[in-house]
Give the backbone structure.
Amino acid sequence: MTTLAIETVALTRRFGDFTAVQDVNLRVDAGQFFGFLGPNGAGKSTTIKMLTGLLAPTSGSIRILGEDLGANSAAVKRQIGVVPEGMALFGRLTAEEYLRFVGRMYGLDRATTMQRTLELLEFMQLADEGKKLIADFSHGMQKKLAMAAAVIHGPKVLFLDEPFEGVDAVAAGTLKAMLQRMIARGATVFLTSHVLEIVERLCTHVAIIHRGQLVAQGSIEELRAGRAQANGAAPTGGKQRSLEEIFLEIVGTSREGNPAATAPEQELSWLS
């Protein structure tokens, strides 16, 4: 029987009269590299905030590694790592001070915390920035530090919200290699990104959310075959399509009810 790393049932979040996420049923097997896709404002970040305990759902349930998040929040959070949308770093600390703080917060002993801190700073190419405050780091350096903090305790599930945004090609390659090693060791990675080429290259399974509702979920092969679309739309064309083409087709179908209506023609008068 396959172990589920993430499972939601009818997950819903409302803000007043606005429903940001509605009746989302996610199933992510342990050990999967899972991509969570959607247009801006579709509900991706709201969903991740609920999955990581940063935001309480209005209704529905969340289970992480078989544990009910609502009933066992502290136990679940010790087993997950998060790189949130805004990173939420402490700008007046150095990178080493911050990682030591995070390690101790997760319950690691001092010796283990120090060992992992030094290894992570070296791995992330931040070892030479020992005296610089995090507030003075570039965006890419802060992103690498946030990733280091998310994995210092060896999480079983890693949630990443746009982890490659603002990261140079060399650093991105380092982060991708680290994530692949985590998957090889049985961890689960839940990734959101607007760069669909990255998702297609890294992820084996994806879900697509649009206007707060899941419109597709399954392996990339199932998406290409048209078997994972929640709205039942049939695939078009005989050639193998890219994830970008699939995404635009599914989101366009869910928006207009017409597979062809994925990119309405618009013109700017002064550029015509």
Observations:
- The two ends are 58 Å apart (CA to CA).
- The mean pLDDT is 89.
- The first strand starts at residue 4 and ends at 15.
